[in-house]
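Re: adenosine-5'-triphosphate structure - here you go.
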Amino acid sequence: MGIQNKVKEMLVYFKNIYHLYKKIWGQDKSYVINSILIIFVKALYPFNRILFLKLIIDELAGNLRWTSALIYVISMCTIELILRSFDSIFWTYEQKKILRFKSIFLKELSMKTMDLSYEQIDNPYLHDHKQKAMAIFYPGQAQFMDLKNTLIDSKQLVAYVLQLIGVIIIFLTITPYVFLVLFIIYLISIVLNIIAADKEFNVWSHSLVNIGRRVGYYQELATDFTYAKEMRTNILGQWVVDKMYYYFDTMKSGVNKAVNVFTIMNIISNTLQITLNGAVYFYIAWLAYTGFIPLSDVIVYINSLGVFVTVLAGISTCLISLQKAGMHLSTYFKYLTTVSHTKSIEDNANIVLDTTTFTVEFINVYFKYPEQDHYAIKNLNLTIYPNEKIAIVGENGAGKTTFIKLLLRFYKPTKGQILINGIDIQNISMDNYMKNITAVFQDFNILNYPLIENFVFDHAYEENTIKEIIHNLNLEKTVNHLPNGLYTELGRLFDHKGIELSGGQKQKLAIARALFKNSPFVILDEPTAMLSPQAEYEIYTNFAKLTQDKTTVYISHRMSSCRFCDRIIVMELGEIVESGNHEELIKKEGEYYKLYNIQAEFYKTLDD
Ligand SMILES: Nc1ncnc2c1ncn2[C@@H]1O[C@H](COP(=O)(O)OP(=O)(O)OP(=O)(O)O)[C@@H](O)[C@H]1O
């Protein structure tokens, strides 16, 4: 990349820091004002000492007035104490505010993620992108910036620049050439350091993001309770750790190269700086030796050189850190502007369904998952009539869940249309659509929340409605046995008294959620796989009653569930191969008959 582009890129990064402050200004003006005060306090520090030391030495070595010298010493210490006190007050204030900004920005990032469509979340690139954006909150590696450091370093940088201006003015009183040579050499060393840091940062922030996520994943496998059973029964500890180390090794080679470049650049820039410092010290001493400057000026220049060295080293460190910060902020701001597919659909989709009776039509629907070559759904034509109970059956991978995902608008058909009452579902307002449709998935999740919140989420509820649903699902015994009934904390991730429900109990809870939502269209994707045959039978009999005024689509591998349905659709390799009710399909002796017979033993027992 050319120098011009690099400079442009740097400017964009610094503009991001400006945007960060602008964002903060929108949230909290007093913080920005506090920041300006911090900068001035920080900038004044060294000059207090330099100027008073000159006055003190002049008084002691020239005018021989020790009382005046003492007054200067007391003044210098008092000012220093005031500056330090201000600094620590501002610092405390800053710490409190930073936590608040972190929570606001994190909330914004989480809301953005929730706003993205299912399809977008199903994309690994988005997760890499999010990982980079998250770095402004969690500096996972020492090399990553943190919001706190960015805010502190940006103020420190301005304070350093003000100190540099002060030191330049002091140097100009001897000769501009000394300053010029100093400045050029230090500028070279700053540029060398920035180049090295840029290389190192690129390794961490671009090439290693995906590998970093993998390492994180293996760590999660070792600690997350969800995987605890598989890990232990299959004795997978060593296997997981070995995989983690494999990726650590991949990381190591990339990082080592960058660190080597950094070390070489550091050695070069340190050699240049130290040689030059020696030369300037000698020059100042020579001026004093030849009587060109008084002793007090030697103190001023030596101290100023000290400040100059610290300031330029500080500027270099701040620039490197802020450059990283700017890059992360770029990803953060970019992530926030990721256009949600849901929203882009929403812009054109404003039709509101004003009826509770739905006719759903799939017309020549084809679907390929992103980046896949084969169709998961092929030429699907199907009409689901109001209040109809449809079952979809088929072997694993036949396309049943994909059919549901299309119906739920998680993905858009590659070809063809899905209509509700003649309206393309893509044109219906998303919120309105989701209010009208409920789904219980085979891989449903129970949240580490109290049971009641797992049931109703954030909706208002009447206790009687809840009791009725619990009764209909035969969940009363379970709830009554819980220590705090409906208010019992579920899951053991945060609370050692949290309750782990059995698989079947969880599944009933997932069904209960759907009943509570009470929408006119219900989808059940293998909702009873974990239930005992008896419990399944009870649920289906009750469910048929509870959903008699609703359109229902069931997916099941258990043919017993299909008998309750008006129509059974058999899918194979993404296509509908048979359709009809139980009796018709049995008579036909086709694919359904085959599937049914495989489970004949089970049905015999159930019929008995
Ligand atoms: N996110 C995805 N990306 C790519 N391919 C996918 C994805 N999800 C499913 N598939 C593929 O689509 C095909 C249909 O899968 P689907 O989950 O719809 O089958 P299913 O009939 O529900 O199977 P099962 O009975 O096992 O749940 C399969 O070949 C599967 O590998």
